[in-house]
Structure formats: C-alpha cells, structure tokens
Amino acid sequence: MRYIPHTPQDVKAMLAKIGAADIEELFASIPAPLRLEKPLNLPESLSEPDLVAHMKNLQRHNLDPEECANFLGAGCYRHYSPAVVNHMILRGEFLTSYTPYQPEVSQGTLQAIFEFQSMICMLTGMDIANASMYDGASSLAEAVLMAHRVHGGGEVLIARSVHPEYRRVVETYLRGFDMRLIEIPVKENGQVDFDFIAQNVGDQTCAVVAQNPNYFGVIEELEPLGEFLADKKTLFIVNIVEALSMAILKPPGERGADIVVGEGQSFGLAPSFGGPYVGFFATREKYFRQTPGRLVGETVDQEGRRAFTLTLVAREQHIRREKATSNICTNQGLCALAVAVYLSVMGKEGLRELAELNLRKAEYLKNKLAKLAGYKIRFASDTFNEFVLECPKPAEEIRDTLLQEANILAGVPLKTHYPELPNSLLLCATELNTQEEMDRLAEKLEGI
Predict the structure, then answer these.
(1) 310 contacts 295 by C-beta, under 8 angstroms
(2) Whole-number Å distance between alpha carbons of 204 and 26
(3) Average model confidence (pLDDT) across the chain
(4) Sequence spans of domains, the chain
(5) Predicted pLDDT at 94
(6) pLDDT in the model for residue 194
(7) How much of the chain exceeds pLDDT 90, in percent?
(8) % the chain with pLDDT above 70
(9) Residues 331, 333: Cα–Cα separation, whole Å
(10) pLDDT digits (tens, 9 = 90+) for 288-336
(11) Rounded to an integer, what distance in angstroms lies between the CA atom of residue 229 and that of residue 441?
C-alpha cells in the first residue's frame, strides 16, 4: 500500500469539518511539556526510486538465514511447507475473508475453521477445539483463566520447563486477578518434579501446567500426573509448542489432560520473525461453555444440506466484553487455514513419517555431539527435535564464534531464562537440516 500524505488543502478541510482553526488547536489538550518543540532529527526525504535503492543496500547487510546452517528452535521451528499451502491461502476468497458473523455468506470460511477444529481434536485426543487463538502463549494464558472460572481457587502450579516467554504472558494475563503462580522445579533428568506437585496441590489449586515436549525438548511422563489429578479439584493443562510432536506421541487427551493448548506454527507456517502464528485450544466437552474464543459447528440448513455456523458461544462473547469468557473476539483465520491445508495434504501417515524423520535427525545430531570432548547432553531423558548441549565455554561465546566464523546458527543460549545453565545451548534439528550441516557443526564445535 502506497503512503500518500494529506495535502495542505486536505488538512484545512478536515480541520474546518471538526471546527478547529489550526493544528495547534487540534492538539491543545496535550500538555506543553509532552509536545515536540523542534523537528525530528531525520535525514532529507528521498524520491521513491532512491528510497527503494537505499533499502536494497541495507538489505545486503543482513544475514540470509537460508545461507546458514540453522539449528534454532525454542518455539519457532523450520519445516518444509508444500507449495499447495500458499497456493490455497492466497486465493482471493480466503485471503480477503473476515470474521464469519453471518453463516449464510461465510460457509467456505466456516467449513475451513471446522476442519481445523476437527483435526486439532484428532491430534490432541480432546472432544472440542475452538477456532484458534492468537498464538500459543495467549492460548496457554486463556487456559489458565478458564481453569480459574471452572474451579475457582487462586493458585496455579506451572512447570519451570514451560516456555519462559509463555510463562511471562501467563503472568501478564493474571495481573488483574487475585491469583498466584507457583513454579514447579525441574528434576535432574529434565522432567517436572512430580513429588513437588503432589506436595503442593491443594484446595486452592485450580490448574497444573506442564509442557510436552518441554522447553528443553524433553518428553514428559504425563500419565502419572493425569491419574494423580483426575480425582482432584484441579485441571491438568498440557502445553505443546512443537505441534509436530503430536504426530508421534500419545495424545494428551488419552494421558489425563483436561485442556490441551499450544502453537500450530509447525504446520505450514514459516518462522516469519516470530509471527503471525496460530494458537490452538482443545478441551473436554463438559467445559465447552467456558471455552474462550469461537467454536464452529456442523448442522443442516432448511433444505437438509450440510451447513456450518458459529455455535455454543454466548452472545456476550461478541457484544459485552465484561461478561465474555475472554476478549478473544476473532481468530487467526488465514493461519488456521494454512494449518488445515497442511494437515490435509500430509495426512496421518505423512505426518507421522515426518515426525519420525525429525526424531531421527535430532538423535543423530545428539549422538554426534555427545561424543565431543568437553561437551555433554545435559538431560538424559528422551527428547523430540531439540535437546540441551552443555558446553565447555559460555554458550553465548560459542554461538557467536560459530556464526561469525562458520555461518552456523548454533541454537539458543539458555542463560537468559535459566541462569543455572550458563554454558548450555538449546539445539534443534528438523527435516530441513542435512547430515552435512550436522557433521559440520560437530566439527566446528570440536575446534572451539
């Protein structure tokens, strides 16, 4: 979209329309100390061709991720997206669609969302799923608020191994509530401390939150936790950041989860500098009235034909924010469509084969790096896609050296969020990492 500024005549006409004599009068309500007293220190304006040339010159200074051996993960995963995904979502009837208030003119959008919900239910093993959330972090925060609505209580036990940025979002959501987050420690093997949970779940605990695979890539043992919480007044929330893991792990719904939330970025969405992404939210049928966001249902029209409509959502969700289950009033529709197309194209067998390939790639890299002198795998538990490597030097130093000298993006240093792991790198390998790249990473690490 081109930027076309207002002409002096436009400004004069608009001011006259609202009854203001000039710009000064328009902004008279802004206190003088807050006003800019001099022009901004900006360079001279450029013509459009000169500006385009300038931006291209700046672009040449950027590092192209596609030219690097990339081992980044930590909630943002590189997976190949078939060309048909973009082909479908960029069709005009999908790309320009907005919120489906009126089912009689939104059947295509509603059906796409319905299919998205259905496939999320299949993957999570839950009864219902909503029309998607903004992202995985907001989905987790909404799950915690839902648990509070269902059971009351002012305490939430949340694992330290849940993505740290997700935990920050949960903290932000809870600021307006009289609720307390209690952090569940991580055991030496990288899994949540079940004994801590057993000792700290009480009458005021409305939810226990665990992530699987967790932030360190470690696969959690969910069944014992689900069985323990089954007869208690506490909901079990499972957060999933690497959605592809659901293609190979037993569904959380079959392991005792009451709410399953997470991020669907792995299914057809590019990393894209962190968004936009698509959160998913699934739960048991008995909680559907407390589910945030929207839900699309299947029905028949007056002539008996298959039809779709928004359903099981109180009118307050759309028009009375103070009485709504949440203020999620829309959904990441285009991103949800991409997920639906991706899952349809891959199918059950294709998705499982891809998950197995990812598992093999990460295991190859893990075993390769475990043999290097001075390095060791930090957690002994099974992992999916990513794992923690303990290094002989500070992780930031190793990361920077590999990037500058070998064009390798060697994972995420954990010190920022986990000070107790100052020399640890979180590394990820997906189907897009070649054996040559992994061997080169091992070779370069050995030489540092």
Answers:
(1) yes
(2) 52
(3) 92
(4) 65-80+347-447, 83-342
(5) 81
(6) 96
(7) 76
(8) 94
(9) 5
(10) 889 988 889 999 989 999 999 888 766 555 556 666 677 666 678 899 9
(11) 43
Q: Which fold has domain 83-342?
A: Aspartate Aminotransferase; domain 2 (3.40.640)
72: amino acid identity, one letter: L
196, amino acid identity: F
Q: Architecture of 65-80+347-447 per CATH?
A: Alpha-Beta Complex (3.90)
User: Do 429 and 361 form a contact (C-beta atoms < 8 A)?
Assistant: yes
For residue 83, what pLDDT band results from cuts at 50, 70 and 90?
A: very high
Mean per-residue pLDDT, 110-116: 93
Output the pLDDT for position 101.
66
Q: What are the E-state strand segments in 226-380?
A: 235-240, 259-263, 279-283, 296-300, 306-310, 376-377
Q: Render pLDDT for 125-138 as a digit per residue (tens, 0 to 9).
A: 999 999 889 999 99
Distance CA 390, CA 244 (A): 25
Selection from 278, 284, 276 nearest residue 260 by Cα? 284
Q: Helix-strand-coil percent breakdown of the chain, rounded to 5?
A: 45, 15, 40
In angstroms, the CA 237 to CA 244 distance is 18
Evaluate whether 259 touches 146 at the Cβ level (below 8 Å): yes
**Rounded Cα gap, residues 288 and 153, in angstroms:** 20
The answer to whether residues 171 and 181 touch, using CB atoms and an 8 Å cutoff, is yes
How many CB atoms sit inside 10 A of residue 159's CB? 24
Residue 6 near residue 15, CB atoms below 8 Å? no
Q: Contact at 8 Å (CB) between 426 and 214? A: no
Indicate the SS3 state at residue 312. Answer: coil
- Residue 294 has which token pair? 């929207």
**CB proximity list for 108: less than 8 A, separation 6 or greater:** 93, 94, 97
- Residue 68 near residue 407, CB atoms below 8 Å: yes
Reported pTM: 0.88
Neighbour count for residue 234 (Cβ, 10 Å): 25
In the chain the first and final C-alpha atoms are separated, in Å, by: 48
- CA dist., res. 11 & res. 331, Å (int): 36
Give burial (CB, 10 Å; 0-12/13-18/19+) of 329. Answer: middle
Q: Which two tokens stand for residue 369?
A: 């790096």
